[in-house]
Design a protein that fits this description.
This protein is mainly alpha-helical. 75% of the residues lie in helices and 5% in strands. The chain is built from eight helices and three strands, in the order αααββααααβα. Strand 1 and strand 2 form a beta hairpin.
């Protein structure tokens, strides 16, 4: 079983036992909806890729279901500013993954790490850095992987290169799962740390003001 499928299965089991509920709350996802999407990715990953053009294929679990989840989360965004931030982060994530695909070696014997893992980590990190919120980071991470592949496929068709592009397939599901997981974990860990630091600063300011007020009595 691909690495992404193993990770997704583990996450699904954890959600069934109520682990990660706070993360889902901040993503504006209830556990049933989250599990439904995860099962869709798992099941869809085993369905043969669907041809949508010359040498261009799409995988249900690695592309269609994650895109449906992205659209769902985007519509759940509470402000236009958050939506704009998600779009900007997604654009940068797509550009970074596309650039990495052009720079990574293509000879199998020179590749030390599976490129899909690298693409997933890059998309997740860029998604967090520029998306910041859990939801924006997740959206940017997923779109970074899927759309970078789509752009490469369109470029290949325009240039007449007969290389097959499989959106979400041929290991693409690993990149999609890793990108979303990395983005959310970074947003959760560093977001929680930032909130604690800001909370601590606020508490100190309040205590300082209280002391000044007591001294002025």
């Amino acid at each position: 079983m691909p690495f992404g499928m193993i990770v997704l299965t583990a996450v699904t089991v954890l959600l069934l036992f109520g682990v990660g509920q706070r993360v889902l709350d901040r993503l504006k996802l209830d556990d049933k909806t989250a599990i439904l999407f995860m099962v869709g990715i798992l099941a869809g990953g085993f369905i043969p890729d669907i041809p949508i053009g010359r040498n261009l294929y799409v995988n249900i679990g690695g592309s269609i279901v994650p895109m449906a989840l992205v659209i769902y989360l985007f519509l759940k965004a509470e402000t236009n500013y958050e939506k704009l931030r998600a779009l900007i982060a997604s654009t940068l994530s797509i550009a970074a993954v596309y650039a990495a695909g052009r720079l990574m070696p293509h000879e199998a014997e020179t590749i030390v790490v599976d490129p899909n893992y690298v693409y997933g980590v890059i998309a997740g990190v860029i998604g967090y850095l520029f998306g910041r919120s859990r939801r924006s980071a997740f959206i940017a991470g997923i779109l970074g992987v899927i759309f970078a592949d789509l752009i490469q496929g369109i470029e290949n068709m325009i240039r007449g290169i007969p290389t097959e592009i499989r959106l979400g397939g041929a290991g693409g599901v690993d990149a999609v799962v890793i990108s979303g997981l990395v983005a959310v974990l970074l947003a959760e860990v560093f977001g929680e740390l930032r909130e604690r630091l800001q909370g601590g600063t606020a508490d100190k300011d309040m205590a300082h003001k209280k002391q000044e007020g007591d001294g002025n009595k």
